[in-house]
Amino acid sequence: MGVVMVEYILGTLVHSFDWKFAGEEMDMEETFGLALQKAVPLAAMVTPRLPPTCYLGSN
User: Fold this and answer.
1) Is the pTM of this model over 0.90?
2) One GO molecular-function annotation for this sequence (predicted)?
């Protein structure tokens, strides 16, 4: 059930928002630690795609 919920939430985020890269160039360098992670975190600009009345909790 956890896999289904992750897919549902990811699909909802992709459908509900317009996603844009917030940088000039994507840095793919990695650093080592307990887990492999990006040296420079990715940043995204997110804007709602639908009118505010379509989102849960909007009046």
Assistant:
1) no
2) heme binding
